[in-house]
Amino acid sequence: MYYNLGAVFVGAGEAVFTSKLERYGGRDAYHVVGDGRTFRTYDWIFKVRDRYESYIDTATLLPIRFIRNVSEGGHKIYNNVGFNREAGTATSTNGTFKVPDCIQDVISAIYYARNIDFSKYKPGDKIPFAMFLDDEVYNIYIRYIGKEQVDTRYGKFRAIKFKPLLIKGTIFEGGEQMSVWVSDDGNKIPLRVDSPISVGSIKVDMVEYSNLRHSLSSLIKKR
Prior knowledge:
With 223 residues, the protein is mostly beta strands.
């Protein structure tokens, strides 16, 4: 992750996503963990120590459990959410709430987006879904922008570009401010994210990957 400091981007932190196949609640599940942190040299500006976990049903790609443990600029949140599909509820650290059938959490929404067949959509189309965050249901969407080449620190790729509707928080502004590029191949791995934040803007580039299911055929030229 790079922070825009005037005319240059400086290294501000890193995010690491891991995914493992496990058994959870008697079902096969992807256990996905996202760890994000600022580098210590950047902590004095805005310190971030975030950990998100999601157990995602392999059959439906819907979350079974979601854990959010974050510290952003001194603001801390912990929430542990279990989803009950039969009852249509989400039980969090703070109570039980009614949710629609195809509810996503923050992490499962990323993997949901990676499994969208964008060939069915035209540039400008909205792809709606519901997400549970901070004990509320948000009806949001992803806007498909189109296909283009993106030049990242890893290399040049053929990519799919979209803009998610963001929920305003401690770091990100709300609205369609974020742009995301994923590889235009069977993996759809995130390649670049550009977004304004509460102070300035950030750029996120993929720098390493492992254990892809498909070949990285979208790579045009590696740096």
